[in-house]
Amino acid sequence: MPLRFGLFGTGPWATATQAPAIAAHPDAELVGVWGRNPDKAAGLAAETGARAYTDVDALLADVDAIAVALPPDVQAEIAERAAKAGRHLLLDKPLALTVEAADRVVEAVDAAGVASVVFFTARFQDTITAALREITATGGWQGGRVAHLSSIFQPGNPYGASPWRRTHGGLWDVGPHALSQVLPVLGPVAEVSAVEGPHQTTNLLLRHASGAVSTVTLTVDAPPAAVLRDITFFGDHGVVSVPRGEGEVRDAFAAAVDLLIAETKGTAHDVGVHFGRDVVAVLAAAERSRESGRVVAL
């Protein structure tokens, strides 16, 4: 039996990635679509052979799992509701916009015993996962340097119209991508210091519990000529960089579906809501540090 999915969201991420990836997956079935805009939900459902729903609970009642492509604050509320209904969760990053909301999702998942995956794109791309596995196994890393500079507010970019991205910027949009690759290598973060720079850039100094220190520079409003994605670690064995991801994003999302299905059958992994909550905690601490001008301990 395929895992029956309900999709929550009708924006460009849902239509370009999640809906077609689920619909094409041999072990999944896209049962229904819910969106805040009923007309868009009806259109996406018609394109994928699914049914449009206007009631959240009605869709939850008809599926085994949900996939979410909604703003993080909306996602957290629906994810908690779905977990309490016994539905597995395939969520987008960041898990939530506050630690409190992330904690409620974690508590609901643990209480219900459902599976969960948070889709940090890079963690589902083979070239990156293989590199991170090797880098982590090597060990001895004293620190890292990350620059994730995007430019989404250019004409024609569908994500530039996203209100939550305009409000919360690169810290919350691309920050999760960066942290999803730094934390497996350097470990949990103990202290965060953050300052804001030009073009709504957030610059983080992270002290990890291991003693390692990393720097992370984030923005979604970089000049187009300054777009950059670089993750480099340094330590006892020299310097190593994480390669860029390869392949289609739909394939990466299909791999996330695979992982969720595997967890429902007992296979553990490290990109569920607990890890998603840890990422939110770092981002929230960075936000407090940026606003207060002080180092924030986690």
Distance between the termini: 43 Å
| CATH C-level of the largest domain | Alpha Beta
Say which CATH homologous superfamily of the largest domain is assigned.
Answer: NAD(P)-binding Rossmann-like Domain
Number of strands: 13
Strand content: 25-35%
Nearest-integer average pLDDT? 97
Note the total helix count: 10
- Principal-axis shape equals globular
Q: In the CATH hierarchy, what is the architecture of the largest domain at level 2?
A: 3-Layer(aba) Sandwich
Helicity range: 40-55%
Compressed to H and E, one letter per element, the order equals EHEHEHEHEHEHEHHEEEEEHHE
The chain-level structural class is alpha/beta
Radius of gyration: 19 Å
Largest sheet: spatial strand order: 12-11-7-10-9-8-13
The overall number of domains is 2
- Major sheet characteristics: 7 strands, mixed
CATH fold-level name of the largest domain? Rossmann fold
Indicate the low-confidence ranges by residue numbers: none
